[in-house]
């Protein structure tokens, strides 16, 4: 089977050598990782308890939760394209990312004003995700431009490991704040907003826009977005991202199904996210480095095989503590093998002048597919029950993996030339 130009092993550096270890990643990647670490502490403080608050506190139906969960990840997906385009147009990805991080910090305070109104909560969550939509593509473009092509998997692995360390700490901080504040949800929101503001400060002080040494004549006056869709490897990767995005039902549903299966006390609910984040933290760098060596597509697809196992285990023969350990570990493996690896693949095929826009395009396609998946899974749960819905999700994921493999492992044509930075 021929490995397509999307995922050919990266070439060595011009002098024929390859620097090894984390030194090749560069200080800018670590600075961006620090921003994500702090921001994810803030975000996960809220998201770890949000499913319980919405479903048990506000008595939302699975369909209503699916809509809110879809908004949380996908409804503002088009703003990823806006952020990507603007960052490429003004060549200031750091500034665009900074606006996005600041919006998310303000949204935590907005939840204080939303009260128990589902509509107001949806608006605030949309504003928060708008911030995420604006910042994600510029941030990932900065990572891809701050590391050599042969180390992109490692660079994204380092960033995602730091990001997941923040996700690991976030629920623990939320539990501590709730305990200290007498279970007051408002205290979590205020603390979360202050931590998010610290992330913005780190971005301003320590992250730098990539220095561009090309002569002015080599720079584009305006990003030609349509050229991305004429690029065959980019088109294939975009389609693969959409297929795979449709296979993901979202963390909240996975944890809610696990909570119902094992009757977990609500006070311990945030620890499910902690287990996933710990597995992600431990596996992100090793899997990123492995993807650089053996190819990124096999690692990506392997991650979705782990996701299939998660869906099947939710209502399989395994139960008790083995299940409570297996699901977060496999779920963390899924994230470690897919999130940064997909962006590393994008960094290999999207031209540098359109790097942020191209990454945003792929992320947008995936997020919109996730929005549809989340709503449809909530509907399937309400119509047919959680067991049938989970098995249906597993079947859809199998089909998505097979279709993606056909896309990524195909014989290249003359038009499929790889676009490198």
In short:
The chain is mainly alpha-helical and 421 residues long.
Reconstruct the topology from this structure.
Elements: H1 27-47, H2 50-57, H3 62-75, H4 78-90, H5 93-114, H6 118-145, H7 152-180, H8 185-206, H9 226-229, H10 232-245, H11 251-262, H12 270-294, H13 296-313, H14 320-349, H15 355-384, H16 386-408
Helix pairs in contact: 1-5, 1-7, 1-8, 3-6, 3-15, 4-5, 4-6, 4-15, 5-6, 5-8, 6-15, 7-12, 7-14, 10-14, 10-15, 10-16, 12-13, 12-14, 13-14, 13-16, 15-16
Domain Major facilitator superfamily (MFS) profile: 19-412
GO cellular component, one term: plasma membrane
Pfam family, one: MFS_1
Question: Could you explain the architecture of this structure?
Answer:
The protein is mainly α. It has a single domain (26-210, 227-408), classed as Growth Hormone, Chain: A (Up-down Bundle). Helices cover 74% and strands 0% of the residues. It has 16 helices and no strands. Helix 4 (78-90) packs parallel to helix 6 (118-145) and helix 4 (78-90) runs antiparallel to helix 15. It is globular. The protein starts with 26 loop residues before the first helix and ends in a 13-residue tail after the last helix. The relative contact order is 0.18. Residues 19-412 form the Major facilitator superfamily (MFS) profile domain. InterPro entries: MFS, MFS_dom, MFS_trans_sf. GO terms for molecular function: transmembrane transporter activity. It comes from Actinokineospora alba. It holds the Pfam family MFS_1.
